[in-house]
Amino acid sequence: MTGDRRQRAYRRGRRGEWLAALFLMAKGYRILERNYRCGAGEIDLVARRGKTLVFVEVKVRGSVEAAVEAVGGRSRRRIAAASRVWLARQPGYERFSWRFDILALRPRRLPVHLVSAFEDN
User: Fold this and answer.
1) CA–CA dist 112, 67 (Å, integer)
2) What are phi and psi of 47, to 5 degrees?
3) How sure is the predictor about 103, in pLDDT bands with cuts at 50, 70 and 90?
4) Helices in the chain by DSSP H: which ranges?
5) Does pTM top 0.70 for this prediction?
6) Are the beta carbons of 78 and 84 closer than 8 angstroms?
7) With CB atoms 3.0 to 4.6 Å apart as the test, which of 10, 44, 47, 64 could cross-link to 29 if both were Cys?
8) d(C-alpha 115, C-alpha 89), whole Å
9) Do residues 108 and 68 lie in contact, with contact meaning Cβ atoms separated by under 8 Å?
10) Is 40 helix (H, G, I), strand (E, B) or coil?
11) Do 79 and 55 form a contact (C-beta atoms < 8 A)?
12) Which domains occur in the chain, in start order?
């Protein structure tokens, strides 16, 4: 991928994460963190609703199926590993339940929120 294409993809992804955060807030979630990075991996959004923590992977794709396919086994393992690091660094959340969601953004369509899209293996 050329530098220009990579920059456009990065900007599209950042804009998608911003839209995803707005969408989740409208559904009653509180965004705790955006673009959390650590040595184990990256989490696009960490959200909270009640006593549930949600680690959200945001994908901007042409279809929901393409978004789900883009979060393959390696990505899931890295997100799960990063979530364990995030949890270890956040005292006070040890009694919360948590899950992994995917938020699929498609052009000119409403976002699709896939709750409990995958599990920590």
Assistant:
1) 10
2) -125, 165
3) very high
4) 3-26, 64-69, 73-88
5) yes
6) no
7) 47
8) 24
9) no
10) coil
11) yes
12) 3-118 (3.40.1350.10)
